[in-house]
Q: What sequence folds into this?
């Protein structure tokens, strides 16, 4: 049972107690994502938090949903045991990035160019889908929230013999998102 | 217009009503997802709700968003899109035999040997006034059922003539191979002959001719066409007229080593070469995957096939991969919220001929999530 708080009730007996845990939506809506990286090679859209003091991560809640996305791959028509199939591959003409979790820095990744009889130039796609998340960039307190969204590709990088995930961004990836940023334990004064 | 509530407004005229349906964020943040199941074989992280009383699920709102994830699959690459390409080869006769397409013969391969062997044709005594020694070859395409298609009979002949003497050496004769379509299981069969003809005294009569032959056969070539080009057909041959001793004539052909070889060069052919690569992803052998009981939340281990060659039921194709995160809800009330997050794979379980959804967890799946838990009708505890 609450010791502190403000109880609000109706005639039906429903009630809630307002406590310091109450959340405030400080920003929400639809945002367009950039087609390019920031100058520090991170990516996404910054939502300023109120005030100038850094707010602890635990007091911030961020929800992001991709609402518009595309994917960029290339394809080849393959004959397999006499049957013809169109198979998708990563596109050497497309810009993809790897994302560093600890810093948010994106580094470009170049797909193989599908040279006949050179298996290392064929980068195979397992899956692709839009992703969106709050990019902490290694931080623990924040004056702004970085919204990250991109199309993610799960890929076998043949030249490196590695299973990786890479992203395409903006109009080549996720171009629009809906988001909600709320904070709690916030001092308006 | 709210009948009940607390109006909060600012000096600009903005305001909001706090009503009993107002939701409080009772927990939010980032959690690390474990690499192992719970003791009851369910999976996830429990976030305690306030108080000790069970809370109606309908009063709880949970949003879970994956922050960091990995995925586990195994690629198998097939070569595709064959097209004909031209090649040039040399064939060498070897000193050992094999059986191909029902014919046993000395090996004809693209690798030169180092051990010489020979075959001999000789006349009877008394036919050594002179000796004519010929070597020639009949060339056939040898099909997988043992039938043959002749390309040339008794071709590339080389003759040595000796009178009371010996002649020997490596001799090459050109032969024009006709353009011929073949199939990949075909082989080439070379039937080499050594013929010796000896003459008696006086003059050239009577004569005696003796011929010896042997098969030389390639492996199944994997070729699709022989081109119309000139082959150089070389053999080491020996001719001897033994007038002074037993009165015989000898003809011999050697092969098997670089010093005395039967060699055919400038064979030009076509074969189908795969140009491209097609990758198919499969559930990774040895990787821990789980199936989930959606009613109880219990996870059971699922073992992927071993991807054994020529054993189709051991290959479990991955059809899709999804990042899955949410509230693993059960019952109608709870005292804690179970956050579930894992990478979901839509696979075809070949061993049971059925599609399945399986998961990898923790650092093999989703390692971190952001979450928000809202509560309405909150009593402030």
A:
């Amino acid at each position: 049972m609450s010791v502190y708080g403000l109880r609000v009730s109706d005639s039906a007996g429903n009630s809630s107690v307002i406590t310091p845990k109450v959340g405030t939506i400080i920003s929400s809506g639809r945002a367009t994502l950039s087609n390019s990286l920031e100058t520090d090679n991170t990516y996404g859209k910054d939502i300023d938090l109120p005030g100038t003091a850094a707010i602890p991560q635990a007091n911030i809640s961020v929800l992001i949903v991709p609402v518009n996305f595309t994917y960029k791959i290339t394809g080849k028509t393959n004959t397999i045991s006499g049957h013809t199939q169109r198979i998708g591959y990563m596109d050497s003409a497309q810009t993809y990035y790897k994302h560093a979790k600890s810093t948010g820095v994106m580094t470009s990744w170049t797909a193989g160019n599908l040279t006949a009889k050179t298996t290392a130039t064929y980068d195979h796609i397992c899956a692709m889908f839009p992703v969106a998340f709050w990019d902490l960039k290694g931080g623990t307190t924040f004056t702004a929230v970085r919204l990250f969204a991109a199309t993610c590709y799960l890929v076998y990088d043949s030249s490196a013999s590695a299973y990786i995930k890479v992203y395409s961004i903006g109009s080549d990836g996720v171009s629009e998102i809906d988001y909600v940023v709320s904070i709690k334990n916030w001092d308006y004064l | 217009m709210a009948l009940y509530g607390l109006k909060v407004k600012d000096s600009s005229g903005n305001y909001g009503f706090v009503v009993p349906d107002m939701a409080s964020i009772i927990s939010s943040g980032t959690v690390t997802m474990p690499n192992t199941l719970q003791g009851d074989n369910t999976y996830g992280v429990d976030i305690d709700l306030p108080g000790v009383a069970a809370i109606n699920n309908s009063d709880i709102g949970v949003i879970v968003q994956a922050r960091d994830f990995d995925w586990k699959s195994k690629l198998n690459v097939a070569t595709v899109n064959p097209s004909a390409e031209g090649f040039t080869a040399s064939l060498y006769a070897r000193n050992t035999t094999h059986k191909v397409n029902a014919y046993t013969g000395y090996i004809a391969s693209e690798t030169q040997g180092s051990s010489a062997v020979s075959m001999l044709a000789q006349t009877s005594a008394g036919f050594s006034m002179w000796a004519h020694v010929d070597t020639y070859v009949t060339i056939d395409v040898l099909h997988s059922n043992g039938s043959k298609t002749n390309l040339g009979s008794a071709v590339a002949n080389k003759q040595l003539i000796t009178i009371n003497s010996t002649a020997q050496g490596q001799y090459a004769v050109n032969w024009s191979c006709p353009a011929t379509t073949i199939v990949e299981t075909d082989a080439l069969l070379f039937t080499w002959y050594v013929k010796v003809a000896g003459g008696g005294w006086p003059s050239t009569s009577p004569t005696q001719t003796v011929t010896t032959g042997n098969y030389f056969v390639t492996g199944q070539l994997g070729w699709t066409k022989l081109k119309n080009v000139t082959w150089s057909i070389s053999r080491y041959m020996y001719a001897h007229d033994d007038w002074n001793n037993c009165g015989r004539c000898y003809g011999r052909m050697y092969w098997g080593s670089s010093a005395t070889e039967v060699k055919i060069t400038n064979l030009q052919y076509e074969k189908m070469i795969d140009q491209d690569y097609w990758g198919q992803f499969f559930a990774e052998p040895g990787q821990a995957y789980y199936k989930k009981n959606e009613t109880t939340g219990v996870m059971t281990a699922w073992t992927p096939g071993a991807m054994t060659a020529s054993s189709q039921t051991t290959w479990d194709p991955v059809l899709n991969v999804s990042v899955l995160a949410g509230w693993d809800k059960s019952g109608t009330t709870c005292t804690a919220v179970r956050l579930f997050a894992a990478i979901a794979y839509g696979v075809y379980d070949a061993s049971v001929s059925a599609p399945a959804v399986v998961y990898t967890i923790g650092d093999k799946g989703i390692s971190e999530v952001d979450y928000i838990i809202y509560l309405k009708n909150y009593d402030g505890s």
In short: Chain A touches chain B through 56 residues (CB under 8 Å). Chain A has one domain: 23-184. The mean pLDDT of chain A is 91. Residues 23-184 of chain A form one domain.
